[in-house]
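Lay summary

Proteins are chains of building blocks that fold into shapes. Our project writes down both the chain and a compact code for its shape. Here are two examples, one after the other.
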Amino acid sequence: MNRPPVIALFPEASFGAALNCVGIARELAARGAEAVFICHPGFTGVFAEYGFREYHLQPEPAAVPGRGETYWQNFVTTHLAHFDLSPQAQLEAYVAPTWEAIIDTVISVEDSLEALLAQIQPDAILLDNVIMFPAILRSGRPWVRVVSCAETEIPDPCVPPYLSGLAPEDVAGRARWEKAASATLKPAHNRYNAFRRARGLRPLPAGEFLECSEGLNLLLAPSAVRYPRMQPLPADRFVFLEGCVREEVPFDPPPLPANEGPLVYMSFGSLGAIDTDQIKRMIEVFATLPARFYVNVGGFMDEYRQVPDNVSLGSWFPQPSVVAQSALFIHHGGNNSFCEALFHGVPSLVMPYCWDGHDNARRAQDTGTGRHMHRSDWSPDALRGVIETLLEDRALRDRLAAISADMKAEPGVARAAEAVLSLVRAG
């Protein structure tokens, strides 16, 4: 190869996947590859800010409305009440409508994605998503599946069902979940398979929206929280990563009037920030604690009129740099956030809204790396008590420090980049 290999990274329209891919792209670039990004509407400029070339998808306007950030904010706002439901109740209320919206996106960008891949001519494609875009398989290019959601996305008899929030040993719960999921998701799955057939691809088995790559699959599943599998994944195709934590600009904590106590960071992701009432309720509890709280409120700064002396709000934080200085990370259970907490040896208080947040909340609780609380069904005293317990647990902090040292000794971004370039070299 007389030119640097071109690697096209295609993350889903979420900041967790997007910034995970930024970490991998930086490492690829450091090893001499040209990393470029294919990005959805609403993410224009996100990757350019990190120095990468962007190729912008142009959805078919007649097929479906644009799937930019405003669309998904409205979608989440509509479903806020459903985030209080159990994972199984969310199947019908939230998960099925979300799959339908995701399928709409796949259909709407198919022609644009096919044209972009023909233009880029990548040597490999990294797909960080929960669904296959037929244009990727139709391109004939080597492709990599990146599992940046919970490890439960890859099924196994010893691994709880994806999105269920169940424990591995809950056999009865698994049976109920699988029966409900099969019935609820069948219409979306049938529609997606019909589109695959129309594009010349084989249909997928019931409940599956994305096949594993025959070349390479990367799973963000640190060994400290990884499940033992009945059917081990072949090591030549499946590479487990100790997180995929990127370096960010340094974070210098803004001084607060109450500038004492441990630093606690809270972020429910770009879309979780929509629930301003819930965040305000939590801030009232924060005001009673001897700690400094830095809270990501996304684009909703104007919703907060009075802020306690020990709380600082921001529309964006360089999250890895903040977490590295934190004594506690309160988050929604996104896999990127969970991995960052483990990477920096910080306990998690996981208050899941939906999707794999339920799986990661369960895993944090079961592995003793954090605590799981319902996102809204709590009293001020209960929330205060959990925060105080996590801040004061010295044994937990020591255990997490050992996990952090192991993860940092084998950075996920480096292992991912080497695996991708090995795939390219192998042709």
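And here is the second example, written the same way.
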Amino acid sequence: MESTFHISSYCHIKNNSVLLDGEPLYSSPNQEFSAFIKSAVRHVKTNYPKFYKMDHLSKLAFLAADVLLKKADFSADTEHNIAIILSNRASSLDTDRTYQASIAEPEIFFPSPSVFVYTLPNICMGEISIKHQLHSENCFFIFDSFNADHLWINTQSLLKQKKAEKVLCGWVDFDDKNYEAFLYLVEENGIIAHTPNEIKRLYKT
């Protein structure tokens, strides 16, 4: 009998709010992103000193992943066969602008390695993997808009081929002051069917 897969949990971060499975977990209106994400990470008790050194995109992805993986009660001391498939529209453009500004003027040319390291969007997956000891496949796609069908196809393939026990999927985009994260965890157990239509429904929730 062919295995069927389900979405066990999902998380949104947008409009200065963090939602878990559609329910508000934290909200702090009228804050810039930097202040909001710092207060949110303290509220959900994400204990990871390196968080404050990350770029905006990595902070966004890291917090959404941490909310989901803590709910799943995975031990940070044990390796987990969890793949990551993420996507966005702006790639690492926000950090690219910061880095470009640091090298634009010859008189004050000062490229920063701590900024340069985040000029690839997939670095956020590395931060998640280090914190939660995830050892499996990962990939980051760039689309014009949220593409549930593509995420579904790749996730189904990984799970059916048993290249991962679970897959952390979704959309995490940061561009200037605009940001949005929608991450969900796919596995055999769960109550929400893992289908493109259900993924689209949850994304729009």
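What can we say about the second shape? The beta strands are 6-14, 17-20, 23-27, 82-88, 138-142, 166-175, 178-187, 192-193.
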